[in-house]
């Protein structure tokens, strides 16, 4: 088959997680490895602006100019977390959202990326959630340019942890600028990969994943799939437990997993073991999704100051080439 035509972005969290890994260094590293776009993590932008003694709006202008100079598009501002259903005044939350949307417009971002609610102080009342998401989407479309809301079901989200749940919400919200961001990690750690099984796989995981992917090809409207995020997961050996050094009381194991052990796809040498290719075969090949794909990984190794953004970016580029080679039968340039 022909090579995939998807444009490839990378999240700034994937390019270093030490304060020495400044946002401008990360952006230059992404450009040097041929990425087409970026997901700007708000905390990276805030740290850059603070270090430069700039208002965040001015920092955003500088970052957009740098991206323009390097030929990089800004895909999203991320992650706008725990908005819907939180038990605080909606007007206060919309005021915060308005400030984020202002920054997204300065950046020239297409999307505000919104992970599905996982906080403790929240309601599962769907009527409330739908209304609040409609208000968010309307706020995002009230000023030009329109910002689209990319809603991401996460494997530990309280009410919308699967693409089916998130798609139902999307249809209820019923706004043209409200759709899905689907992440391979969350699909796989919800259905297939288990941190608690010695095998690393739920006993019924392969069957559940196959069924979910088969339905996703036909059931997700193309205009509601905004973009796809890519990452792998390291197998826990031995299985995760309360004695593990990463254990946090009350924290979902999948959340702990996500923070520490999400390498780039197909990095088997770093413990990656999930069937990312099966997911992408369904979404990019069978479904024919030709929009943005974005690397979103969280690798504890990158917390070291000595782990340079250039090395991280090169890993991301190699990962995409390996994925494309496997999906198309081409020979990777590595």
3D structure, described in words:
There is one protein chain. It is globular and about 50 Å long. The strands form two sheets. An eight-stranded parallel beta barrel has the order 1-2-3-4-5-6-7-9, surrounded by eight helices. The chain has a single domain, classed as TIM Barrel, CATH 3.20.20.150. Helix 1 (23-32) runs parallel beside helix 11 (309-328), helix 2 packs across helix 3 (56-70) and helix 8 runs parallel beside helix 10. By secondary structure, the protein is α/β, with parallel strands linked by helices. The mean pLDDT is 96. It has eleven helices and ten strands. 42% of the residues lie in helices and 13% in strands. Helix 5 links the parallel strand 4 and strand 5 (148-152).
CATH superfamily label: Divalent-metal-dependent TIM barrel enzymes
CATH architecture tag: Alpha-Beta Barrel
Fraction of helical residues: 40-55%
* Whole-number total of structural domains: 1
């Amino acid at each position: 088959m022909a090579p995939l035509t998807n444009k490839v972005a990378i999240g700034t969290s994937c390019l270093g997680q030490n304060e020495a890994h400044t946002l401008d260094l990360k952006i230059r590293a992404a450009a040097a490895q041929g990425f087409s776009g970026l997901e700007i993590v708000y905390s990276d932008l805030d740290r850059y602006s603070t270090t430069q003694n700039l208002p965040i709006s001015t920092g955003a202008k500088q970052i957009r100019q740098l991206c323009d100079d390097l030929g990089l598009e800004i895909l999203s501002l991320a992650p706008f977390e725990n908005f819907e259903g939180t038990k605080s005044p909606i007007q206060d939350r919309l005021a915060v959202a308005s400030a984020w949307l202002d920054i997204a417009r300065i950046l020239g971002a297409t999307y505000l990326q919104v992970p599905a609610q996982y906080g403790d102080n929240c309601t599962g009342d769907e009527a409330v959630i739908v209304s609040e998401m409609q208000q968010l989407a309307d706020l995002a479309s009230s000023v030009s340019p329109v910002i689209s809301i990319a809603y991401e079901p996460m494997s530990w989200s309280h009410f919308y942890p699967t693409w089916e749940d998130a798609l139902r919400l999307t249809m209820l919200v019923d706004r043209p600028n409200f759709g899905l961001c689907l992440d391979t990690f969350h699909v796989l750690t919800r259905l297939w990969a288990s941190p608690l099984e010695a095998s690393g796989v739920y006993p019924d995981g392969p069957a559940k994943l196959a069924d979910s992917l088969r339905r996703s090809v036909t059931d997700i409207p193309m205009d509601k799939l905004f973009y796809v995020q890519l990452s792998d997961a390291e197998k826990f050996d031995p299985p995760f437990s309360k004695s593990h050094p990463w254990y946090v009381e009350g924290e979902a194991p999948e959340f702990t997993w996500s923070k520490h052990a999400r390498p780039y796809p197909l990095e088997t040498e770093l413990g990656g073991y999930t069937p990312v290719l099966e997911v992408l075969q369904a979404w990019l090949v069978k479904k024919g999704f030709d929009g943005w794909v974005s690397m979103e990984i969280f690798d504890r190794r990158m917390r070291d100051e000595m782990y340079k953004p250039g090395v991280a970016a090169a890993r991301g580029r190699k990962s995409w080439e390996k994925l494309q080679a496997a999906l198309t039968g081409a020979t990777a340039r590595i």
